[in-house]
């Protein structure tokens, strides 16, 4: 599974470039100009914390009308602080819904965990 990179300063995941240097590969964010080593310890995009736990998230698609089918799984990092409610949910054996975007991947506004806004059924 390929590693996903995000700028530790602004959370950008698309506009990133890499440059080989004598001390290793460094990534540069095109959005904010921040530069960091490629193999730096992973950190939460929202709070900067390093206590991340990987959990399984369902990949789904509508197979027939409104029937939602699980077609695969992916590992996503959850921050102990920002994704606390979803981490607790996954520890109970419940799946992480396909619509949930972890704060560890995408910077979230102050307001914390959006687990209560997660809806599994079609709208």
Descriptive keywords:
globular; 5 strands; 3-stranded antiparallel sheet; two-stranded antiparallel sheet; mainly beta; 123 residues
What is the molecular shape?
Answer: globular
Category from helices, strands and their pairing: mainly beta
Radius of gyration: 16 Å
Which regions contain 5 or more consecutive residues with pLDDT less than 50? none
Number of domains: 2
Q: Helix share of residues?
A: under 10%
Number of helices: 1
Percent range for β-strand residues: 25-35%
Largest sheet features: 3 strands, antiparallel
Order of helices and strands: EEEEEH
Secondary structure blueprint with pairings:
Layout: E1 16-21, E2 24-29, E3 35-37, E4 52-64, E5 67-79, H1 84-91
Antiparallel strand pairs: 1-2, 2-3, 4-5
Please, could you describe this protein's structure?
The protein folds into two domains: 1-40; 52-116, no CATH class. A hairpin with a 2-residue loop joins β1 and β2. The protein is mainly β and 123 residues long. The chain has one helix spanning 84-91, and strands at 16-21, 24-29, 35-37, 52-64, 67-79. The chain has a three-stranded antiparallel sheet with strand order 1-2-3, with no helix packed on it. Strands 4-5 form a two-stranded antiparallel ribbon. It has one helix and five strands.
Brief overview:
The protein is mostly beta strands. Helices cover 7% and strands 33% of the residues. It starts with 15 loop residues before the first strand and ends in a 32-residue tail after the last helix.
């Amino acid at each position: 599974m390929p590693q996903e990179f995000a700028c530790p300063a602004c959370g950008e995941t698309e506009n990133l470039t890499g440059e080989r240097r004598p001390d290793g590969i460094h990534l540069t964010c095109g959005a904010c100009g921040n530069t960091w080593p490629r193999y730096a310890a992973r950190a939460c995009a929202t709070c900067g914390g390093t206590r991340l736990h990987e959990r399984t998230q369902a990949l789904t698609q509508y197979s027939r009308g409104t029937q939602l089918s699980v077609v695969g799984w992916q590992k996503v990092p959850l921050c102990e602080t920002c994704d606390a409610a979803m981490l607790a949910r996954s520890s109970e054996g419940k799946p992480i819904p396909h619509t949930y975007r972890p704060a560890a991947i995408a910077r979230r506004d102050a307001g914390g965990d959006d687990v209560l806004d997660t809806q599994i059924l079609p709208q």
